[in-house]
Design brief:
Shape of chain A: globular
Shape of chain B: rod-shaped
Number of helices of chain A: 15
Oligomer: heterodimer
Number of strands of chain B: 11
Number of helices of chain B: 1
Structural class of chain A: mainly alpha
Order of helices and strands of chain B: HEEEEEEEEEEE
Number of domains of chain A: 1
Helix content of chain A: over 70%
Distance between the termini of chain A: 30 Å
Largest sheet of chain A: 3 strands, antiparallel
Amino acid sequence: MDKIVSINSKKSKPISPIHLVALIDLILFALLSFKSGSFVPLTLILGVSKATLNYLSYYILRKFKLGDRYIFLIVALILSFGLAMQLRLSTEIGIKQFIWFLIGISLFMLISSGYKIMHKYIRSIWFFYALIIFLFIMTQMIGVRINGAKNWIMLGKFSFQPSEFIKIIFVFFMASFISNSEALRLKIADRVLPPKWTLMVMVFVVLGFFVLQREFGTALLIFMVYLAIVYVFEKAAVFIALNAVFASLGAIVAIQIMPHLQARIDSWLNPYADIAGKGYQITQSLFAIGSGSFFGTGLGLGYPHFIPNVETDFIFSAICEEMGLFGGLAIIILFALLVYRGIKICLRLRDPFSKSLAFGLTTTIGFQTLIIIGGVTKAIPLTGITLPFVSYGGSSLISSFLILGILQALSGSILTEEVFEVEKIDNE
Amino acid sequence: MYEIIAMTTKYILIFVIYLFLYKIAKLIYLDIKMMFVWEDSKVINPHLRILSSIDQKGQETVNEIFPLIKALTTIGRSLECEVVISDPHISSKHLQINKTAQGFTILDLGSVNGTFINDEKLTKPMLLNDGDVIHLGITKLVFSEGGKLHG
């Protein structure tokens, strides 16, 4: 007991990390407002409002005891990187991204305080699966082709990417499988199909849809999330090995019949063979990362526009170019800390549904970061997927905020409620 | 002009960013340490260890630790007890442990199934020694005077 007291008394008011985020915001945006040579007040106003929103959300989360204090802080800094980089790449895109950020953060606050109302009621595995299939069919029917992949839905003036939301619904689908796998015990022609095999068929159908839409990155992502959840909660090593074998067979067949995929593998194995053509993206990305060196060229002094799709897929290369290896490493560390906090939230939850939900959402963010950072640094073949909270895109930013909001809600009221209920049951 | 400012601020930026990372890592470290300190403080003070029933490997593991802080600790199924154990073979108020000048004494509160100390039935108040095994129902408790960590 003495030890506890001594630790508490030793805390002599250190600088709270939230002030540091505000400081970083101010430095970044003040720098950007002078980039064109003359002072642009709008950029500074955006920076100040970003910092103000940080403070506001942070204190609301603390005041109403809405759970984990770290995940929002970590994301606030990741967002500073993202917003500043978008604004540096192009003012127009930066402002659009800022509007999405405003919508995202309000959704985040809404979900983190209001999610508990629906938490207990919507747990039907068939409902989630139907929702996934419905979104796929909608995309196929009224979808629009952008950059070769038919994966956008236009709603009036807005367009959104259903796959960004499918990955969240997929985690809910997996969580409802973990909490009630008996729902999948099907009887087909007098033979009972074990739930795991039904699940496998269902997941491979979803993967097939993704491949049809040419979204290999998201397909890989949800497959990894699926394996991670089954491995952690079902402890079925043989089943997982079998899944991996099936998926790799499928991937090999897909590579054989799709020239598009073959080109990606080629440009991964040897991008320098065709620098002007197939290998252009990845070599430009590598050159950018290389020219950044340890501390980067300085914000606004690099040439990130040489990289195609720099504001979405290749944002990490642009950050590495202008903020250096240390900036890039900071992003990776931030995501690692976020995943660590997510796993910690998951460990404290008791209900299998919430537990697997927290785990699935955390691994979604973690794997997504790994896949895209691995892709742009040529560690794995490149697949078009966004870096959460950093890449440009309304769908991507909003789905990342949704994930964060649900995690926050799980760490807050739902956690306290569950612990309380478990104690009550134990005592009776 | 802008170039010079941007070149210098990049070092400041990296410094502040890593300061932030350090702060977060430190807060998380303190968070984990507090958890351990709380667990340790339970072990340092006199406490009861509740053992799980024998697992597959034939080993008993410590399930939970109850610190004996109060002058009087009652054990039973009822919510009013300080140590609540959900075991159907335990009475609602099964036994109590008193803190006295000589040490901790244990007393059965007229339970149905009785209490056994080191396999002997408890009939009168008894002084507990370090390492005594208390049987009640199908639950096993070990009394420890504490003092050493991870013992």
